[in-house]
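Exam revision sheet. Question 4 asks you to relate a sequence to its structure. Input first:
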Amino acid sequence: MSEMPIYTMGIDIGSSTSKCAIIAGNDKLCACVTSQGGTGTSGPDRAVTQALEQAELVSDDIIYIAATGYGRNTFTGADKTYSELSCHAMGARWFCPEARTVVDIGGQDCKVMRLDPDGKLDGFVMNDKCAAGTGRFLEVMARVLELELSELEKMDEKAQHIVEITSTCTVFAESEVISRLSTGADIPDVVAGIHRSAALKASVLAKRLSVTAPVFFTGGVSRNAGVLRALKRELGVDVLTDERAQAAGAIGAALFAYKNIT
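Answer key, structure tokens:
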């Protein structure tokens, strides 16, 4: 008679979204969801409910819950909390066991982590004082261009040239984009410049640590193929990601939860 699997849950509560993952044992991903709404909203509870539904489980099936992210200390349902850095490192290695550098671009911050050969955090740098190069930056730029955020990567594919966006401040970059448009720049070329600006911000941080391949890209912005292409160009190395990489922090938290009970 086979043993019942051990289910653990990880929840990553960010500034604008909540991610939840359920792991069976130490490897099988049973659920992985992202819900709009971060800390201070109903987003975390919705993410948990959706993850349980996706895994076809009930709350009593979950043995241990770990929380991470900006709002981890406000989530009362967690058995333990872990730092974002540790969880993203753990989650990235779940996707890419050989990963040595992790670039995480979320809604409000950008961070780069260096991992040792065993996958342990060996150094990090982060930008959390300014929205430049983050998901918020892309949201503002999409609004200026009268596009949906999801349309940016499609526009990038049509670019013939990259319009340089030199401002590192979101407010100044907004004015610069408007100026470029007023002088007749094509929208796809401007979008390519916006993506390069975001990638450049992350690559500057990464180079402060010295980039070691393989590089894995996490966070909500990792879903934007235009930024991914730009990041590869700026770093000069291949950059790997996964369609579920936005939930790397939640997956890492679920893995830590499993380690905590075994």
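Marking note for examiners. The chain has one domain: 7-129+201-261.
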